[in-house]
Amino acid sequence: MGMVQNLEVHGGVVTFDYVLTTPAALEGPHAARGRGSGQKVPRRQGRQIKMTANVKASAQLSNILGPGIKNVIAVGSGKGGVGKSTSPATSRCLWPRGAKVGLMDADVYGPNQPQMMGVGLSSHVNKDNKMEPPTAFGVKIMSMGS
């Protein structure tokens, strides 16, 4: 799967990079598997594993939304009370793990992300007369409620 890169063996010491697809995975079962790998190499004297993450951008997404946007998670449902607002609010858990996160609340009838994220209902306009999104928990938030 291309997750093991830069594999080298010098004097019985195995070194390699274990590249995951998201910074959040650095704490999950894939990370534990990566740290445990290299144990079956015969006559090894040690191992050095560099755990990293490389989020790959979609070319189609970059063409539509602009450069720098690597992934989009859309949440929608025709029914109320299923967690459409709560799920995006948990995006604040990704920022401490190294992800850059933005949240777009396009709910016309009940935009509540400003309230859930604690940013209020106003947006800041900079000197170039462009709206700057408020930030909470490392997440930039744009909402119809603003």
Short key terms for the protein model shown above:
146 residues, alpha/beta, 2 domains, 4 helices, 3-stranded mixed sheet
What is the element layout, followed by pairings?
Layout: E1 4-10, E2 13-20, H1 29-36, E3 46-53, H2 59-65, H3 86-89, E4 101-105, H4 113-117, E5 124-125, E6 131-132, E7 135-136, E8 139-143
Parallel strand pairs: 2-3, 4-8
Antiparallel strand pairs: 1-2, 5-6, 7-8
Question: What this model shows, in words?
Answer:
With 146 residues, this protein is of the alpha/beta class. The protein has two domains: 4-53, no CATH class; 81-143, no CATH class. It has four helices and eight strands, in the order E-E-H-E-H-H-E-H-E-E-E-E. It has a three-stranded mixed β-sheet with strand order 1-2-3, covered by helices on one side. Strands 4-8-7 form a three-stranded mixed β-sheet. The radius of gyration is 21 Å and the shape is elongated. The model has no long low-confidence stretch (mean pLDDT 76).
Q: Order of strands side by side in the largest beta sheet?
A: 1-2-3
What is the structural class? alpha/beta
Average pLDDT: 76
Largest sheet features: 3 strands, mixed
Taken in chain order, the helices and strands follow as EEHEHHEHEEEE
As an assembly, this protein is single chain
Shape: elongated
Total discrete domains: 2
Are there runs of 5+ residues with pLDDT below 50, and where? none
Radius of gyration (Å):
21 Å
| Strand element count | 8
Strand percentage lies at: 25-35%
**Total of DSSP H or I helical runs spanning 4+ residues:** 4
Q: First CA to last CA: what distance?
A: 43 Å
Classify the helix fraction into a percent range.
Answer: 10-25%
